[in-house]
Design a protein that fits this description.
This protein is mainly α and 452 residues long. Helices cover 60% and strands 2% of the residues. The chain has a 3-stranded mixed β-sheet with strand order 1-2-3, with helices on one face. Strand 1, helix 22 and strand 2 form a beta-alpha-beta unit. It comes from Symbiodinium microadriaticum (Dinoflagellate).
Length: 452
Amino acid sequence: MVDRLLEVKLHPSKDEVHLLLEPILPHWCKAPNAASQVMKQLNARKRGDLTCEVLAILREEENFKLSPIHVGYGVNACVSSALWRQALLLFKEAPDGHNFSGALKACAKGTEWELSLHLFASMDEASLQANHIHYSSAIAACEKGERWELALQLLQSMDHAQIIPDRVNYSAAMSACEKGSRWQLALSIFELLPRRSLEMDVTSVNTTLSSCMKGWQWKMSLEILSYMPKAKLLPDKISYSLSIGACGKEAKWQHSLQLLESMPEKEVIPDAICYSVAIGSCARGAEWQRALKLFHGLPSASFCPSIITYNEVLTCLHTAEEVKEMGYVLFKQAMWQGFYSRLLHKGARNLDVHEMSPGAAVLAVRWWLSEVLPTVLGKDLSLCRVITGWGKSRKAWRDSDVKAAVAHFLSARGFVTTSQELQAVRVAMTRATPVQFYGAGWLTGQSIDTSI
């Protein structure tokens, strides 16, 4: 039966599945365990879509005795298929120990952290004993919901429940603190691992390195990276890129380059992200020559420039007065290669610089003002907008301020700006004399100088 079901296309209708199950349903009504075995095998073969349809059919079968085990397989199927709400609805039908882990996992993956805590608290009412897996899932849900303080409360409550936290529990709490930019707390938890005689793994160390980068702790990052071999852990590309980034945030470009150059010796091959972060380190250290050398060396390292590497090198060249024109040439090269294809996706009057670094965004504004608007608008600048966004989706350059860079560039060329923060950040321009940010920012100014 399992083989016949697996031949069905993905996400079949209930009628299609029912047609296949119809001959065997009478047997399943007498032997419900046979149905659970089929559902188990379907989940193992990554066909949660079929498991959900089988469960729906069994629920409608009058003579079939549905058990929490069947519902549990349905919960797990929904979780694997990212159907979080359906998983939780199924769980409520049969809230027993078999299904709690799947329901909590659904909450964690679906960022339903409040519901996760509610379910976790209800275990006492159902006379169920929480274990390490339940705690890890609940803490992970808090991480997804960016509620680091609740994650720590859960971790502390394990002692009261006489459950000794394991490495997975600590790692989940560390990750919650790291996501919440509480790097000091993440480091404190990391230091607890050896005291509790728990072995560290690369994932927990990388979480700590990420905390160091966010906390501008480049020295500690280097210490942790050098400690990994002593703990019999091999740093990976992520470990190195995070340490390179931590050094780069403090403009310690020498250390960033040393780390990059040492990677092959440690049998770790740098990837494009490592090079991009190193380029950013050079940019913050005003070492545009070295940044440009790394950028042009990407092909010899078997990498093609990406939007991340372009963002980093363009910011570096934009801040170096003597090579600003080179930066403009590289920006147009990036556009020719298909990067920044959404700049004008809302029309020529709207420049969208989401996912751009400050330097790349300024170069995009320069191109827009000098090459786009004069050809389509003449001197009429009414309701033209630069959409910068809040910057929350920018990962590699999260700490930068694209809006400020764009506003500064325009102000230096005769546009006076004021800002009123609202939900979306937009800079709009008219030819009116007073300048005003409205909504996300309206900006008014004089006529465009095409020699910008």
